[in-house]
């Protein structure tokens, strides 16, 4: 175990999800205390138990709905009551409704607004409420998960011949997250709170071989990333090694966005 995050208390929203589980494990492995915050409390508890089995005392579960102010405030209060402080929050949750993922022509106005509102709105709400807590505490760290498709226009050609598409909501959401990050960083100037973002490339999750081949053609070597490929940049942004990074976006995509 390294000590880059020695005893730092880090809340990870969507902590029981695909990336969230890996983020929480990386935090614990680096000496921090991972707060697995998820709207599915049983999943959060299961994830925390698995991590704590390997890193005793370094994971704890809490229920969190990022679209509910009451839930966000309850999460903050619970973690603060348990550990006495919160050093950082990672906005990683991925809320979406049952119609998410349709092609542009099939997306309704209502679904577009619902999905953008839940995701960007949820990141705003978590950031707003945690920033209020961090102000009182005297400092804190907010990390927002964006995407390469918040940085560049979608490469629609990689989806040709597959049932996949790049949802319009996703591109709008992730670009919005990046500017929310910059806004917060400047607004919170002088408070001891820093705000940065991570923009990953595609993450391996059972995608069709045809898609993987086309995607890799735009990359420098590996192509689609494994979940573990993001852990180094996360730990860096959470650690004191990045103490003077603020309002920045770190892209990890094997060159896909070039």
Task: Write up this protein.
The radius of gyration is 18 Å and the shape is globular. The protein has 258 residues and is α/β, with parallel strands linked by helices. The protein is built from seven helices and seven strands. It starts with 8 loop residues before the first strand and ends in a 6-residue tail after the last strand. The model has no long low-confidence stretch (mean pLDDT 97). Helix 1 (18-29) runs parallel beside helix 2, helix 1 (18-29) packs across helix 7 (231-238) and helix 3 (69-83) runs parallel beside helix 4 (109-137). The chain has a seven-stranded parallel β-sheet, with helices on both faces. The chain has a single domain, classed as Rossmann fold (3-Layer(aba) Sandwich), CATH 3.40.50.720. Helices cover 41% and strands 15% of the residues. Helix 4 (109-137) links the parallel strand 4 and strand 5. Belongs to the short-chain dehydrogenases/reductases (SDR) family. Keywords: Oxidoreductase. InterPro entries: NAD(P)-bd_dom_sf, SDR_fam. It comes from Massilia agilis. This is Oxidoreductase.
